[in-house]
Structure prediction request, 105 residues.
Amino acid sequence: MRGIDFREVRALISMADVLELLGFQARESSGQQRRGPCLLHGSDESSRVFSVNLAKNAFQCFKCGAVGNQLDLWAAVTKQSLYQAALDLCQRLNRDVPWLKTAQR
Ligand SMILES: [Zn+2]
Prediction:
């Protein structure tokens, strides 16, 4: 299995990209912060427990305690491994997969 440069994936694909794919509807918006219903534990639509920082590409849910970056979010919502989630996101968003360079022999 070829290695993926996850750091590069996070540079190519932003939290905003992932939220858009997931159809996230923010209930509150201030600067780079978005608040809305949790995409993971299924809170009701008016909920604002789910907090996102678009500048830091980070999310946190104050109810279920989920926390992570955009890649973690996609993996958790779509129930895939980080590896699969990274491939999946690159495909959906038409980005070249940043494979890790293998050593030359
Ligand atoms: Zn939650």
Notes: The pocket of zinc ion is lined by residues 38, 40-41, 61, 63-64, 66 (CB under 6 Å).
